[in-house]
Write a structure and sequence with these properties.
With 257 residues, the chain is an alpha/beta fold. It has one domain: GTP cyclohydrolase II (Rossmann fold). The protein has eight helices and nine strands. It has a seven-stranded mixed β-sheet with strand order 3-4-5-7-6-8-9, sandwiched between helices. The chain has a two-stranded antiparallel ribbon with strand order 1-2. A hairpin with a 5-residue loop joins strand 3 and strand 4. The protein binds zinc ion (ZN). The site of zinc ion has 4 residues, from loops.
Length: 257
């Protein structure tokens, strides 16, 4: 059987997974940095709303990570979340006083099917690996397609095939630039007893919204998970919603889609 020869990674990148011909991640994640931001949590207007959510159930979930390790997470469900959706939190290890936290928005195509159109799958697995190593929480938020839903996201992919970028496509379908609201995430953190976190993200909107809800946030940047299919998507995130990716992407080859 003839196998397509692998594409060489761009300078500074390494192959994302063994045997993966097209996925790359930045070597050593040189963008990682921490910048603590202290918020006044004493008198936030949403304090009553945030305190209205409680843990509903807790159950152990054995899992196998992509590197083959078998691990366990505690899965939490909640009562009283503001948007009424079935968000869950996964706790790994023994989190410290200001634990590592990833707010991951559901992406069926990326998380489950390994879609190369976005970077959600690699970001999820990066988070699971780090959280299992260090202890911490993954909040898996049911916000498919930046909150517009699965069908609308797939409709937007059709528009992107005609030349729109990811945000222009969403707007053409009548949606905003990013429909995600992290009030429920702040409620989940509060219900878990977390007032201070280290947030794993390259999206400044997440830390900003959490701080508005009185969560004290230090930030750690995710890796840059680029491939020839998602580089246009990553560039749009960097230039239009200020995701911290811009210093890497100019060196990456032009995307295939
Ligand atoms: Zn995705």
């Amino acid at each position: 059987m003839n196998k397509k020869p692998p594409i060489a990674p761009p300078p500074g990148f390494a192959r994302q997974l063994p045997g993966d011909d097209v996925g790359y991640t930045i070597v050593g994640n040189p963008l990682t940095r921490e910048f603590p931001v202290v918020s006044d949590t004493s008198n936030t207007p949403t304090a009553a709303l945030l305190d209205g959510a409680t843990v509903r159930t807790e159950v152990c979930l054995p899992m196998r990570l992509l590197d083959g390790r078998d691990v366990e997470a505690q899965v939490y469900t909640f009562h009283g979340l503001a948007d009424g959706k079935e968000h869950i939190a996964l706790k790994f290890g023994k989190p410290g006083a200001a634990p590592l936290v990833r707010l991951h928005s559901e992406c069926l195509t990326g998380d489950v099917f390994g879609s190369l159109r976005c970077d959600c799958g690699p970001q999820l697995h990066e988070a699971l690996r780090l959280l299992n190593n260090e202890g911490g929480y993954l909040l898996y938020l049911r916000q498919e397609g930046r909150g517009i839903g699965l069908y609308s996201k797939l409709d937007a992919y059709r528009l992107q095939e005609q030349g729109r970028d990811t945000y222009a496509a969403d707007r053409e379908l009548g949606h905003g630039t990013d429909a995600r609201d992290y009030t429920a995430a702040a409620q989940m953190l509060r219900a878990l007893g977390l007032q201070r976190i280290e947030l794993l993200s390259n999206n400044p909107d997440k830390s900003s919204q959490l701080e508005q809800h009185g969560i004290q946030v230090a930030s750690r940047l995710t890796g840059v998970h680029a491939n020839p299919h998602n580089v246009g998507y990553l560039r749009a995130k960097a230039t239009q919603t200020h995701h911290v990716l811009a210093t890497i992407l100019p060196n990456f080859p032009v995307g295939a889609s």
